[in-house]
Amino acid sequence: MDRLSHMLFRGMMAVNRWDGVAGVAATCVVGSILLVLPAQGLAQDVAVVNQSAAPSAAPVGSDTLLEGIEAAQENSDDLDPNLVPLEPELTASPPDLSVGDNSAETPPSEARAGSAEPQETLYNIPVVIDQSVQSHIRFFNTSIRDRFEQWMVRLNRYRPLVENIFAEFNLPSDLVHLSLVESGFNPYAYSRAKATGPWQFMKGTGKLYGLRIDHYVDERRDPIKSTVAAARYLRDLYDIFGTWPLAMAAYNAGEGKVLRALHKAQAESFSDISRTKLIRLETKQYVPRIMAATIIARNPDRYGFAQNPVPPHEFEEVVVTRPLHFRAISNVTGISYNDLRLLNPELRRDATPPDETSYHLKVPVGMSEKVLELLERVPTHKFPPLAMMADREIPRPKINASHVYRVRMGDTLQKISRKFGIPIKTIKARNNISGLSIRAGELLNLAR
Predict the structure, then answer these.
(1) 29 within 8 A of 163, measured Cβ to Cβ
(2) Is 79 strand, coil or helix?
(3) CA-to-CA distance for 380 and 281, rounded, in angstroms?
(4) What one-character-per-residue DSSP string does 335-379 give?
């Protein structure tokens, strides 16, 4: 079996094998002092969005009843004042970007001589200095320098947390810079496609990797749990593709799209498919963008970025047995409402969920004892009733363990959507399908 055939086979047979490790990673981190987002930076972001961002209109012409219900659930995100749109710099491209020569499979030790990169730097993901990477370096270092520095400061507050979790999954530490280009490690960031959190999980992928996403809690925004999910997903992608450039491309485009591109091009590397029209320009730019972010983050002095120590924002946890609103907790304990909101970004309604009898609420360091003493004085929060349609549970057929479906003769997106209970827009998003046509024999990722 050649390498491409083996890769396709692994893609079809890939299953989640990391439940046990994920538990270890979460326990190791949760059992100690944790890191959280700096309050000042996010408070400013939220203020800007509340002034300028308008809720998006509800989608019309939903393809199925299931899609309409999921759309209603997704649109409830627009009511969440904590969310902020992705910063435009995260998706902007350098004006002089060239994607014609991406030698992204070159080992880290073979960075091109004569480049601006210090040769003594050793990376643990493949890094090259080609024209595309250099364009992104100039873009980060000049065009959006202030913004990129903010992203690095934000990530550095989380870096020990992320690196510890990645180490549990035997992932290269330089892979943490993927979060820089995804969201600037902003737990409150969301995209037009409704990807959310520091690792920009879509709802279906987040649920597939064990994240709770409902009316009250969105763990895609939890820095710890979302990082564990990202580590599991990246490890699975590497197990499928065998190289980090391809795994990173699949993180952006979806496994199905990359597998199809490799199959159609009879290629085995990211550099091969990046020279074709089989993957989108966004994906062609994505891998060099991560390389450029890694180069600057690993060599900040060389690029003139300040390296002032960033103290981790520490917190403690208190077990809450009933729904409590942040404002009520603040009124009784004196803890800032904004501190509670920023320490618990996963709580969508600024309150602990009503269906949890032992929710771990994060509070500032040194405040857990006071909160425990005063907890009985905090009134129970009464949530308004949920809309029946948005909260209805509809039984759906199970998908096989690989979550990969081979299109059969006569299949359409509408038929597949109805068969597996997955909205057409979700299937299209997970597989980067722009139109409605699919071909027999194609592999579709049917993760919800």
Answers:
(1) no
(2) helix
(3) 51
(4) --HHHHHHH-TTBTTSB--TT-SSEEEEEETT-HHHHHHHGGGSP
Amino acid, single-letter form, for residue 189: A
Q: How far is CA 389 from CA 102, 193, 393, in A?
A: 48, 22, 9
Where would I find the H helices in 184-325?
203-208, 223-241, 244-253, 255-265, 270-273, 281-298
Per-run averaged pLDDT (10 residues), the chain, 448 residues: 64 45 34 33 35 31 35 48 87 68 41 44 91 95 95 91 94 96 95 93 94 95 95 96 96 94 95 95 96 96 87 87 97 95 93 94 96 96 72 47 70 82 83 79 76
Q: How far apart are CA 407 and CA 270, in angstroms?
A: 24
Instruction: Walk across the sheet containing 359-364 and list its strands.
Output: 34-36, 313-320, 359-364
With the CA atoms of 398, 404, 215 and 380 taken in that order, what torsion angle do they form, in degrees rounded to the nearest 10?
70
CA distances from 201 to 213, 230, 289 (A): 11, 8, 19
Determine how many CB atoms are found less than 10 A away from the CB of residue 343.
Answer: 23
* CB neighbour class for 196 (10 Å; exposed up to 12, middle 13-18, buried from 19): buried
71: left (phi over 0), alpha (psi -120 to 50) or beta: alpha
Using CA atoms, how far apart are residues 151 and 179, in angstroms rounded to an integer?
A: 9
CA distance 186 to 345: 10
How is 166-206 classified by DSSP, letter by letter? HHHTT--GGGGGHHHHHHSS-TTEE-TT--BTTTTB-HHHH
Q: In 3D, which of 423, 437, 18 has the Cα closest to residue 209?
A: 18
Specify the DSSP class assigned to residue 56: P
Adjacent-strand bridge partners of 362 = 317
3-state secondary structure 311-329: CCEEEEEEEECCCCEHHHH
Closest CA to 314 of 367, 249, 371, 261: 367
- Residue 145 parent element (H or E): helix 145-168
pTM of the complete model: 0.70
**Helix H or strand E encompassing 411:** none
